[in-house]
Amino acid sequence: MQKAKEFAIDVQVPPGECEFTGGWLDRFKACHGIVCKIISIEANSVDSTSDDYQNWQVDETAIFFKALLDKTLEFSAKPCHSGKTNKKHLTELVCANMSGTEKMPLHVLGRSKNPRCFKHVKKLPVVYNANKKVWMTSIKFTEWVPNVDEQYMMKGRKITIIVDNCPAHPEVKNLTALTLVLPPNMTSVLQPMDQGII
């Protein structure tokens, strides 16, 4: 804001024509795409000699559908309390090509095999599966990958999917249309799913 005031004086903007307030600064940042980011420590250990993969990405995220907000506006003198955070959640596996023009159907994991809310539902817009912990496991992942491989084999296409190397993403062998790439320490560089899509 101070620098903007100096520039205004240099280019002889008449006094009072521009006010360099906090609102002006917010609009300036929005206009020029300036955002506050968390500095990724993982990026320091990236191998810059690795190939630049340009195909598909896959990652999971949890949806805490019963969780309340953990922040609110309140007068400073008043106490601000809440009950325990509700940990009920679903997990969704998201997979798309690097440009976002093609997306696989969401793969959603819930707790119940046949939830009551699905009673009269004939078709879901997602692939639904269940396990007790409601997290992606290596078993569920190794069930998902061959299904995707078969779909793309039938389409006559070959794709590369970049997967982060967590224990829930083991190597899957005997694939025809898919190549799974699990590079270590590459999430911060190659994982657009972590950079805002999810």
From TrEMBL:
TM helices/strands, residue ranges = none
Q: Which residues form the DDE-1 domain?
A: 87-198
Output the InterPro entries linked to this UniProt entry: CenT-Element_Derived, DDE_SF_endonuclease_dom
Quote any Pfam family the record assigns.
Answer: DDE_1
Q: Which PANTHER family match?
A: PROTEIN PDC2, TRANSPOSON
This chain's protein is named TIGD4-like protein
> What species does this protein belong to?
Mya arenaria (Soft-shell clam)
Tell me the classification of the organism that encodes this protein: Eukaryota, Metazoa, Spiralia, Lophotrochozoa, Mollusca
